[in-house]
Design a protein that fits this description.
This is MYND-type domain-containing protein. Helix content is about 50%, strand content about 0%. The chain is mostly helical and about 260 residues long.
Length: about 260
């Protein structure tokens, strides 16, 4: 399924300049992304195999002529599992390769996104929260957050506008909570000195990707064996590797193919 999502999103065959997804392509992608988010192993596998390709496909797109593609790629990003449970996403967000992506996503959220089910504003807010918590604050122009100051201000205004819209109570409670949470985080950033709030959170999270610094199976703090395929998780030895494989790592251990 991860490979099919990659093909349909044209990550192997990038869109030509100023060319957007057709209506047919958009409908097919909506069908593919409308999967049970927690139970489906598609998204961890997609993270392992195609995350950097999705990033490189998104960045050159022009909003004026490729709005559907931008909206689709951002929403696929928003459906990926939490970085704490998804070491592929966590490692990417904490790498220099993620620089600029928080601003790009935030700016497009402010300007408006064409929603594809099952995504929605709450999912994008969750993605933006991941950017704020996991990405280095030096990505931003004031070193207080990975998103620039002016973009944060526009983002706060956009969130407030969404929460004030008539019928907002019809949005699922889980999405409303994410909107309110992002609103609170943006306020906290402005009132905390320097980049202390988010940088301290980022430093804490660096050790929280399960399996990155600890054995994925038994949580021992000094694992000596790196997974030879994904190179994203560690084990104490063969016994723990087999245990982790059988308990679910086999669904996530996809080698990045370039």
């Amino acid at each position: 399924m991860a490979d099919k999502l990659c093909r349909n999103a044209r990550l192997n065959n990038p869109l030509p300049p100023d060319t957007d997804f057709s209506e047919e392509e958009s409908k097919e992608l909506q069908t593919l992304t409308h999967l049970p988010l927690v139970e489906c192993s598609c998204y961890p596998a997609f993270s392992a195999k195609y995350l950097t390709r999705l990033d490189s496909s998104l960045r050159p797109l022009k909003r004026e002529t490729q709005r559907k593609a931008i909206s689709t790629y951002i929403q696929i990003l928003s459906l990926l599992p939490d970085p704490t449970d998804n070491p592929y996403l966590g490692k990417f967000l904490q790498s220099p390769n993620a620089a600029g992506l928080p601003n790009l996503v935030a700016s497009n959220f402010v300007q408006g996104i064409d929603w594809l089910r099952p995504s929605g504003p709450g999912h994008i807010c969750t993605l933006l929260i991941h950017f704020l918590f996991w990405c280095d604050t030096s990505f931003g122009d004031d070193n207080k957050a990975s998103i620039d100051k002016a973009t944060r201000d526009a983002l706060a205004a956009r969130v407030a506008d969404i929460l004030a819209q008539p019928g907002i109570d019809r949005l699922p409670e889980s999405q409303l909570i994410k909107l309110e949470r992002l609103k609170g985080i943006l306020i906290s950033i402005e009132y905390m000195p320097g980049g202390y709030y988010l940088q301290s959170t980022n430093d804490f999270l660096k050790g929280q990707i399960r399996g990155q610094e600890e054995c994925l199976a038994c949580m021992d703090e000094d694992p000596g064996m790196l997974c030879s395929q994904c190179k994203a998780v560690r084990f104490c030895g063969k016994e723990c590797q087999l245990k982790a494989w059988r308990s679910g790592h086999k669904n996530r251990c996809w080698v990045m193919v370039e």
